[in-house]
């Protein structure tokens, strides 16, 4: 008689996270914890909540950043300036496994909610401080919005065209910090499982994004010169760029070695003689004659439709991709074929959202809970803490909670 193994739970089932968070970096980190099964209690200001709620109204009346970063959480609206509000949060933290905050530098310490203080009071707690530039140093109290940190970390200097540096089109500094906070929490939970102790975790947006600058940073530090800005082209490989097609599309292709160049010349460009031409035969030569190389490729692809160009490139074994728009990604056939789209509940009805990239084959699907309205869970959480009806009514009447 064979026995079937019991189904596995989501990895973070039973983990409780309390987050005093705003904008993107901390909310994106804790949303991923929620997707993996953690209970995330989001503390927000009664007067408007997380200011990312007001960034735009693009998601059917809700802010696109907020919908992206806050599904699956419980919203508790508490005034942290009021001692009674701070006591509510302290009581929540006492029963939590993880605390995350990304308030302005020094604000958490003034509230008694910094990682060092909380971990001293609760040795099993994992407490994450996310800041722009770190707790010390001359930049510790400098305002740190995503675009500013992209500039400070040098990302803008290597992104764009030779004539114009540009910021990344996504909040790269926020996302980098969020990913390190997420992985830091997972590592700390593993350590606590073996030692019984939590501890502080410190994440800096600048340090996170500076780590992501690995290739250009090391190229510049050790080679003496940072890679040049080349738009969508590659700084040291040619051809590696986007080229217009006959029907108005653009196709990006990448030739990684000289064998591939010969195949491209023969099977796609229809000019086999270029395979051994001294001006093009090696990558070094193609980079040195980049304008001629790009012109040859562009001339041939301009005569092909996008679909035909992709088919020819793939048949020749040349790496290629369409230069997709945001709308193209939302309709991407690979994402559809892999069934990556779901709907999440919100106050304005269900909205489409993509499953997180972490998949557990044969196991449970990531939990994609509802996007909470401001203070939607305040009463329920206060009841859990043992506050009676009269006390809850009084706190709400006096503006301590909402």
Description:
It is a single chain. The chain is an alpha/beta fold and 402 residues long. It is 38% helix and 13% strand. It is built from 17 helices and eleven strands. The strands form three sheets. Strands 3-2-1-4-5-6 form a six-stranded parallel beta sheet, sandwiched between helices. It has a three-stranded antiparallel beta sheet with strand order 7-8-9, with helices on one face. A two-stranded antiparallel sheet has the order 10-11. Helix 1 packs across helix 7 and helix 7 crosses helix 8. It is elongated, with a radius of gyration of 26 Å.
Provide the descriptors you would attach to this structure in a database record.
402 residues; 11 strands; 6-stranded parallel sheet; 17 helices; alpha/beta; 38% helix; single chain
Strand order within the widest beta sheet: 3-2-1-4-5-6
Q: What does the radius of gyration come to?
A: 26 Å
Which regions are unreliable across 5 or more consecutive residues at pLDDT < 50?
none
Helical region count? 17
Oligomerization category of the chains in this entry: single chain
The average pLDDT value, as a whole number, equals: 96
N/C terminus separation: 56 Å
Helix content: 25-40%
How many β-strand runs? Answer: 11
Strand content: 5-15%
Helix/strand class:
alpha/beta
Order of helices and strands: EHEHEHEHHEHHEHHEEHHHHEHHEEHH
Major β-sheet profile: 6 strands, parallel
C-alpha geometry = elongated
């Amino acid at each position: 008689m064979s026995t079937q193994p019991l189904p596995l739970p989501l990895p973070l089932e039973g983990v409780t996270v309390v987050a005093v968070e705003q904008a993107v970096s901390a909310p994106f980190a804790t949303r991923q914890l929620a997707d993996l099964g953690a209970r995330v209690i989001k503390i927000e200001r009664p007067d408007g909540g997380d200011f990312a709620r007001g960034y735009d109204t693009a998601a059917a009346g809700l802010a696109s950043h907020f919908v992206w970063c806050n599904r699956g959480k419980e919203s508790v609206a508490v005034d942290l300036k009021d001692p009674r509000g701070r006591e509510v949060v302290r009581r929540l933290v006492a029963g939590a496994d993880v605390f995350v905050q990304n308030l302005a530098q020094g604000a958490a310490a003034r509230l008694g909610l910094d990682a060092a203080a909380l971990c001293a009071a609760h040795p099993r707690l994992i407490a994450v401080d996310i800041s722009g530039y770190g707790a010390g140093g001359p930049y510790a109290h400098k305002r740190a919005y995503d675009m500013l940190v992209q500039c400070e970390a040098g990302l803008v200097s290597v992104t764009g065209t030779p004539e114009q540096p540009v910021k990344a089109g996504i909040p790269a500094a926020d996302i980098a910090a969020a990913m390190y906070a997420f992985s830091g929490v997972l590592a700390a939970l593993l350590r606590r499982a073996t030692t019984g102790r939590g501890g502080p975790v410190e994440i800096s947006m600048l340090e996170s994004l500076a780590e992501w600058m690995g290739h250009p940073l090391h190229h510049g530090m050790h080679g003496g010169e940072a890679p040049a800005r080349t738009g969508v082209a590659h700084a040291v490989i040619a051809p590696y760029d986007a080229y217009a097609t006959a029907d108005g599309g653009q196709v990006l292709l990448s030739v990684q070695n000289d064998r591939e160049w010969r195949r491209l010349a023969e099977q796609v460009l229809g000019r086999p003689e270029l395979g051994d031409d001294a001006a093009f035969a090696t990558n070094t030569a193609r980079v040195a004659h980049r304008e001629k190389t790009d012109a040859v490729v562009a001339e041939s692809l301009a005569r092909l439709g996008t679909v035909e160009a992709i088919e020819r490139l793939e048949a020749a074994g040349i790496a290629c991709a369409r230069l997709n728009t945001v709308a193209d990604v939302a309709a991407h056939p690979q994402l559809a074929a892999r069934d990556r789209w779901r709907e999440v509940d919100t106050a304005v009805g269900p909205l489409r959202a993509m499953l997180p990239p972490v998949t557990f084959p044969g196991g449970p699907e990531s939990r994609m809970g509802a996007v909470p309205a401001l203070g939607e869970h305040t009463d329920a959480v206060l009841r859990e803490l043992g506050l009676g009806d009269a006390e809850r009514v009084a706190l709400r009447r006096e503006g301590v909670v909402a």
